Amino acid sequence: MLLSALLGERLQLRYEELIFRRSGYGKPYLDLPGTPAFNLSHSGRMVVCAVAHTEVGIDVERIEPLDRATLRTMLGAEAAGRTARMTEAETTDFFYGRWTLLESWLKAEGTGLNNKHTLETFAPRFDGESLVMDPEKPEGTSWALGTLALDSPFPERYALAVCRKPQESLPGHVQFIEVPELIARFRALL
Question: Which of 3.40.50.300, 3.90.1150.10, 3.90.230.10, 3.90.470.20 would CATH assign to domain 41-178?
Fold first, then answer.
């Protein structure tokens, strides 16, 4: 519903004109020439969508407490070593920040989570402006990654990351849409 409302309004199309397909890895796309790229994610009570001119990936995760042993295992030895002097809450935030960056990159690439790329092997570099990841495909261009702060209307805390091409700007804010408004916007497309 969120995706249909956003794309239908942006492209001035009715719901039945929005033809969605999936890539070989299951990434959805709009099967119409010249339409924007998009990506979706959800966790807890939050659903997020990123829309861009070029491929994009987004990930949101509800921040839940994790024990240190799980965090060490998931982060790998090198990152776990960096978190040794952090509090448990700081380590948890570090984990979710890295996890959402990794997932957003894999979703932008169109592969999703796989055994080839783990949190332990994920190594974006800082280019002076943003975190950067090289593309999987040799003919591709680098990706820019960033996190967004959420002023969530929910009591839970969430981590959010977006992966995009460098020419796409990172949004300055996140727009929240309440369910009744979303339903009304979706019905207007019918």
Answer: 3.90.470.20
